[in-house]
Amino acid sequence: MPAKATNDQKPEIRTLTTTAELAEFCALAKAQPYVTLDTEFLRERTYYSRLCLIQAALPPASAAKAPGGSAVLIDPLVEGLSLEPLYDLFRHKATVKVFHAARQDLEIFFHDAGVMPDPLFDTQIAAMVCGFGEQVGYETLVKKIARQPLDKSSRFTDWSHRPLSDAQAAYALADVTHLRAIYEFLSAQLDKTGRAPWLAEEVAVLLDPETYITRPEEAWERVRTRSGSPRFLAVVRELARFRESFAQERDIPRARVFKDDALIELASTKPLSEADLAKSRLLLRDARRGEIASGILAAVKAGVEARDLPKPAPEEPGRPGNAALADLLRVLLKAKADAAGVAPRLIASASDLDAIASGARDLPALHGWRAEVFGRDALRLAAGEIALSAQGGAVKVVPVAP
pTM for the complete prediction? Predict the structure, then answer.
């Protein structure tokens, strides 16, 4: 058991390195209303993130019952440590799992074990719902809510290296200890305003496995191209499919296979042999021979011979013919977001507004809580049923007589 802290001694940081220790901590967590969590990982050299550290903290009131303290580090790199007790906690419905900006953390757990922490509370999303601005960072919330400084000096370190330094351990633990005060504040705010269902709508997207599945056959849709030629796009599709599959199977970054600029070059030149690949200006040397070269040539051939040609994506809707309406929608969004105390970007993006102005109606901005705050009036504005009026420093919605 860690030694008790004196006035000139910092509390010892406890790291769980055995399955039994982890099971004991998770059993305590199951008796609590919530547990705060975070991860540290590396992704520079792999396709899938490599989990290097997990941080967890129980509510402060549980400290007396938690051997060694209510906040711990969990070392997943220790041989023989099973994370199943943690995954069992993730499935435990009576304990809320609290993360900040949870998407990357959840992606790791989904790909490693096919499990999601449910119920989930994401403090970044909750902060946007509560009016703290767009994509608010953890450090900002620590300062504004927990009223504590935060040392970020260890942020960009190698979390796979052992042993961790004292600075690394302290930095990692701070990511979950301050999160307790942030969660309790934001949870109370959501209950007070009745906006907990708003957060639930956003969290549902994070808990949907589809959010974390990357299908090789769809990878081409993320490649930006200037040409809309169906045949060119067919080659892009097959090259992107090969690259994604190759990277996934070998767990390497897709850029290690070839980058997007090289992909576009290959789709334009359509090489037929390794001699043609040798002429590429952008292709990495290792990609000009061996498995990658064979895959490239097969992908180009498949694209050239494809009968199911992809259709070019429709142009961004909006600006030319609907500029006036799109601008009015921007004014309406700003007014509605300010009145509701919600980050505008959480309600609708600039492209969403252009799409609404062009007649699109199947958009998140027009459904759920967003419709209540903005979407219904956006549709009324587009239909000419309301107008906007400036009164002093405020924008008012004015009904238009039929």
Answer: 0.87
